[in-house]
Amino acid sequence: MKTIRIISADDHAIVRSGLKQLMSTTADIAVVGEAANGAEVMSIVRRIPADLLLLDLSLPGIHGSDLIRRLRSEHTGLPIVILSMHNEKDVVTRMLRAGAAGYVTKDAEPETLFAAIRKVAHGGRYIEPALADELVFDMQSSTKLAHAQLSDREMQVLQLIASGRSNGDIGHLLCLSAKTVSTHKTRMLQKLHLKTTADLVRYAIANGLADHLSRPPLAAGESAESDEADLPPATATLQGELPLAPRV
């Protein structure tokens, strides 16, 4: 039986160690390399022959669909299985569209992960059954949520806006200029057919997007106050009418 060689990419050392131990309990799967960030992923896949990449979405540096597209462009023969804490349909859909061949959540049973690795390594595709059921139901609808158009970076900015961050805070956290953050915001308003930052906050809350990420920790010297000119008080936001997702 040929051993399936996998590279494990996760920014938590304890997770990588646990995965390596878990794979050692099988007769046909072995971890041959590890990476803790996007740059390490790109480096290790060039150096170490592997049959599959097991990829977390929340890596430092290039990550998510941007990393998947780059990997698919430069290493077309390396299939990717996502192993993530995120089970939101829009996240799963974006990763599959970017080129991932499999998606499993971190609360899945080990046998589910083994099944995903084996199927994808042999040319198939695999989505965790619970997620697959939701996606099939969602695809049966003739419409899709407007925020499915947003890029990973735009989703990050939207979630940070919804958490109460100002343009300056967001730029600091994502290593972007305030002008670039403003540009992302303008594009989101256009894509979502909204008019103001307050509309973006209400949209994120109404559609469950504000819950995808917890509020990032404050950096040294950061103020916990948001830009009052940019965002309405939380009470006004929550008491205002929440716009449902436009259908496109």
Describe this structure in words.
By secondary structure, the chain is an alpha/beta fold. It folds into two domains: 4-139, 3-Layer(aba) Sandwich (Rossmann fold); 146-239, Arc Repressor Mutant, subunit A, CATH 1.10.10. The chain is built from eleven helices and six strands. The chain has helices at residues 13-23, 38-47, 64-74, 89-98, 110-121, 129-139, 152-162, 167-174, 178-192, 197-206, 234-239; strands spanning 4-9, 29-35, 52-55, 80-84, 102-105, 126-127. A six-stranded parallel sheet has the order 2-1-3-4-5-6, sandwiched between helices. Helix 4 (89-98) links the parallel strand 4 (80-84) and strand 5 (102-105). Helix 8 crosses helix 9 (178-192).
Descriptive labels:
alpha/beta, Rossmann fold, 6 strands, 248 residues, Arc Repressor Mutant, subunit A, 11% strand, 6-stranded parallel β-sheet
Write the layout of secondary structure elements.
Elements lengths: L3 E6 L3 H11 L5 E7 L2 H10 L4 E4 L8 H11 L5 E5 L4 H10 L3 E4 L4 H12 L4 E2 L1 H11 L12 H11 L4 H8 L3 H15 L4 H10 L27 H6 L9
Parallel strand pairs: 1-2, 1-3, 3-4, 4-5, 5-6
Helix pairs in contact: 3-4, 7-9, 7-10, 8-9
Concise overview:
With 248 residues, the protein is α/β, with parallel strands linked by helices.
Alpha plus pi helix count: 11
Q: Structural class, judged by helices and strands?
A: alpha/beta
Estimate what percentage of residues fall within beta strands.
5-15%
Shape: elongated
CATH superfamily of the largest domain: Response regulator
Number of domains: 2
Span of the ends, CA to CA: 49 Å
Q: Examine the secondary-structure arrangement and name the CATH architecture of the largest domain.
A: 3-Layer(aba) Sandwich
User: Based on DSSP secondary structure assignment, what is the total number of beta strands?
Assistant: 6
Report the CATH C-level class of the largest domain: Alpha Beta
CATH fold category name of the largest domain:
Rossmann fold
Poorly predicted regions:
212-248
Helix and strand sequence: EHEHEHEHEHEHHHHHH
Tell me the strand order in the biggest sheet: 2-1-3-4-5-6
Radius of gyration: 20 Å
Average pLDDT over all residues: 83
Q: What is the helical fraction, as a range of percent? A: 40-55%
Largest sheet composition: 6 strands, parallel
